[in-house]
Amino acid sequence: MGDIGRLLIGMGVVLIVIGAVLLLAGKVPWLGRLPGDILIERENVRIFIPIGTMLLLSLVLTVIANLLARFWR
């Protein structure tokens, strides 16, 4: 039962962090408007492909994951 409790606490912490990031992401004015982000607007269609933003977030999350992995070893 102890392992399940730890797993649930860990999942809760991850959800809190994701929620905080989503709340703060709207307050960063340049997020979603980076070079490489594609926006196609037509009469009835709007397509947004955030390639630059995805690359930046992937890089940041990779660095954070590697730092956490080094500290837990």
TrEMBL record:
PANTHER family noted in UniProt: BSR5223 PROTEIN
Pfam short name (any one): DUF2905
InterPro entries per record: DUF2905 (IPR021320)
Keyword set, alphabetical order: Membrane, Transmembrane, Transmembrane helix
Classification of source organism: Bacteria, Bacillati, Chloroflexota, Chloroflexia, Chloroflexales
Species of origin: Roseiflexus castenholzii (strain DSM 13941 / HLO8)
Regions crossing the membrane: 7-25, 45-69
Keyword Hydrolase in annotation: no
Name used for this protein in its record: DUF2905 domain-containing protein
